[in-house]
Amino acid sequence: MLNALVSTETMTKEEWLKWRNKGIGGSDASVICGVNKYKSAVELWMEKTGQLEPKEAGEAAYWGTVLEPIIREEFTKRTGLEVGIEKSILQHPYHPFMLANLDGMVIDPEKKCGYVFEAKTANPFAADNWDLDVPEGYQLQVQHYMAVTGCTGAYIAVLIGGNQFKYYFIERDEEIISLLIKLEKQFWDCVVKKKPPKLDGSKASSELLNRLYPKGKSKDIVPLPGEALGLIQQYEDALSTENEAVLKKEEAVNRLKDLLGGNQYGSAGGRLVAWTNVTSERFDSKALKSEQPEIYSKYVTVSSYRRFSIR
Question: What domains, with CATH codes, occur in the chain?
Answer without folding.
Answer: 4-203 (3.90.320.10)
